Structures are given as structure tokens and as C-alpha cells.
């Protein structure tokens, strides 16, 4: 079974199919789980991804690449290996990669979350012999509020700000988190976004996904229009003129790291909301158990703790070193834009 997946210095490799999944070095054939920069990298000769992910890859990697797409549940044979993509629930277009060869099944989950956020699709548990799981929030302290509960808290904060004529500024990753916040706050206030978010919005809209109405920050001549409304920017803009010039702003970070007491104070912002596009501790455990996998490979995050716990529960688990990381840390934009 282990021979269906190999963990190499280039990435996760399927020797029978002669392809890699989310490689971190250029390869001949790359199967991509989703469009975040730590999973989709430039330089490969051929890319296979979900239909919704292609416009994001075209924006990030260039339109002159060789892209091939699949829908969820569609099957393709690559050198005799049966390959299909299934919802991961992480962001729009995110997919788990299911591999089947001579009766053996392996699933590479990429990044995933288990609660339906209304825009990213619903995570689909898949039975398999081997399962590759992330562990970004693989500690018991990370247990998210429900989608409804966390957005109720966010809406209450917006209403509080509006009582004092304040603009509610949300710091969120441009791909995934920003669109989720837009969807959750649709109809609550007018939405303004930084150009980095707008660029991702346009890519997602090209995939046929409808997003709530929004205005682009640098296209607004009278910034007083933003007062009492909602503005979404990226973390790279904290402390820059982009935020400072928003009228009477109150700033909140939306990230799973806000679950830990003191994170908001460390970031010197007004509020923090534990909104994550990754599974929490309970979601990770639930997902692993649902696969009924004989072997589990734990990648980026708290892999040591999570793998140890799985072994204590009688599930054979191994830590795997990868170059995947926290996409929120990897966010980069031109800080001088819109200032």
C-alpha cells in the first residue's frame, strides 16, 4: 500500500501514475488540491486541478501553462491509476485527491475543513487504505464555533462599531477567507475590498461562482463612503497607510490563530475572530476516523501531537515532513498600492 504514495524531496509522488500531488518543485505532471501558494507552485509542465481552481492558477501562475481540469467525482486514468477529485471544503475549488490502483485506495486531502461555509463546498469523507491529513490546528485547544455562531459575533461587532460611526475593517487571506467573510456578511453592510482581494474575486467569478456585491478600495474617490461599512484587506497591510486612511476604522483579524488568548493583543488590533478554513481538532479526528484508513500520514501543522494521539487511539499514524505551510503567513501584496 505504501508504494502507492511516496514522500520525496520534490513532493508527494505516485510512482505508478508518474505524477505528483501539490509538488513544491517543478515536475512533469502535478495534480493540485487547491490554489493557495504553498500547494500550487510555478514551473510544472502540466497541471490537473478542479474546474473552479483553474482561473486562480491562471492568475497566479500564468495563462500560458498547460492546465487540465476535472469536476468533483469525475474519474480519470493516469498511467493506469484511477484518479478522482472530491470536495475538501477548504476554499472554492479545493479538492481531495483519491487514487486507486489494483484495489488499493489512497486519499491526499490537501487542506480541508468539515463545516459547510456556504461557498467552499461540503467536505466528503472517503473510505481508503491510506489517508494524508493536514494538522494545521491539530491541538485540542482549537475548537471552532459553528458558522452561525461566529458570524453572529462578527455581525454584533459591526453593529457596535456602527453606533460609534466606525468602519469595520477585516484582515483576511485574499483567497478563501475573504470570500467567506463576504458571503457571511452579505446584506449586513456595503463591502469594500483591497485590490488583492478583488483580483481573487475576479478569478473566482470567472469560474462561475457568484459573490456578493463589492467595491474596490482604490476606485473609491470619497472614502467617507466607507464609514459604518465593511472593508476587507490582507494581513500584509497591517500598519500601512491603506488601513490608516480608512475613516474611523476598527480592525479585526479573522484567523484560527485568534482562538488563542493574547493573539489579538499581539497583533495590536481591536478584535479577533477565530474564523478558519482548516478543520479544528474535532474535525480532524472525525475526518480521519471516517476514512477507516489503515495508515494515516500527518503533514504540516502540529503533526507530532496529532500523530501521537492517533497512535494512542489505535490508528497507525506517521509524521511526514513537507513544505506546506500557513498560507496566511505567505500572503504578499504591494503595500504601497491604494495608499
TrEMBL record:
Protein name, entry field: Ligase-associated DNA damage response exonuclease
Enzyme class, UniProt record, top EC level: hydrolase
GO MF assignments: exonuclease activity; ligase activity; RNA endonuclease activity
Keywords tagged on the record: Exonuclease, Hydrolase, Ligase, Nuclease
Assigned EC number: 3.1.-.-
InterPro entries, alphabetized: MBL (IPR050698), RibonucZ/Hydroxyglut_hydro (IPR036866), Xnuc_lig_assoc (IPR026360)
Claim: Transcription is one of the keywords in the record: no
